[in-house]
Amino acid sequence: MMDSPVGSLSGALRWGDNGVPYSVEFNDQYFCQDNGYDEAVHVCCRGNSLQERFSALDPSCPGTFTIIETGFGTGLDFCCARQVWEQSAPPSWKLHFVSLELYPLGKDDMARALGLWPALGDIGHELAGCYEPSPGRVRDWYFKDRQVRLTIVFDDVVAALARITADNIAPQRADAWFLDGFAPSKNPAMWSEQVFEAMAALSKPGTTLSTFTVAGFVRRGLEARGFEVRKIPAHGKKNQMLTGKFNPEK
Ligand SMILES: C[S@@+](CC[C@H](N)C(=O)[O-])C[C@H]1O[C@@H](n2cnc3c(N)ncnc32)[C@H](O)[C@@H]1O
To answer: Residue 189 Cα, ligand 1 centroid: separation in angstroms?
Structure first.
């Protein structure tokens, strides 16, 4: 089914017959088999109502919309968010996309993964062309005349979230979260109480979240930190996914 392992900094990446990258270490794939692009748009962008929220930003009162993601992986979620941003946000506003990654893909692997999605247009090529995995470091890239800033903290999720706070990387805190570790049963470090606690500290009333998983301990962990969560229909073969809103007063 799978061809032989290829190089990645995680040392354990394989490619399925359908071209989907698969982590041997976590026994999971980076995105779904049938259409990872549609899944990313549905789970991350629709799950956080990004198009509606970007369109509603007041052009005469410019600011920064901040998305924080757990698990940068191939960069597909970032590319989808950037695409929706360019289609719907006023040019006076800026998008700051902050992500974190402990086992970064190599440059060639990212190019191969993003090359699967012609719907991204040049956005995927642009990312793959400038991206450099930089373990231990915090790196910034700017796109679209500096309207879009990507920051990746190359560290373990808990340490990375602590660095985002300590270094004031997201000064206005998150407007939206993309929770995209591998499945909680296979990658529990990405779904720990420490992660949920750090998320609450980096959120403000009205901050939203979305994730493909509806695992009970994830729902309970988020609720215990002040997120109201609900299940909504998922993409493709999956039945449900989770969205949420930070409401610490409740
Ligand atoms: C499902 S993939 C993310 C897919 C990604 N959002 C995309 O658009 O391609 C999960 C990612 O979490 C990363 N990861 C796993 N454990 C981690 C940890 N403890 N700290 C930081 N990143 C981790 C993996 O290396 C992988 O890239």
So the answer is: 10
Distances (CA, A) of 170 to 21, 69, 90, 176, 250: 30, 12, 20, 12, 25
210 lines ligand 1 (CB under 6 A): no
Instruction: Return the domain boundaries, the chain.
Output: 35-246
**Angle 59-60-61 from CA coordinates, rounded to 5°:** 95
β-pair type (138-143, 148-153): antiparallel
CATH topology of domain 35-246: Rossmann fold (3.40.50)
Q: What pLDDT, in 10s, does the model give residues 204-237?
A: 999 999 999 999 999 999 999 999 999 999 987 7
Please give the number of the atom of ligand 1 that sits closest to the Cα of 75.
8
Report helix, strand or coil for 208: strand
Question: Ligand 1 centroid vs 101 CA: distance in angstroms?
Answer: 6
pTM of the model: 0.95
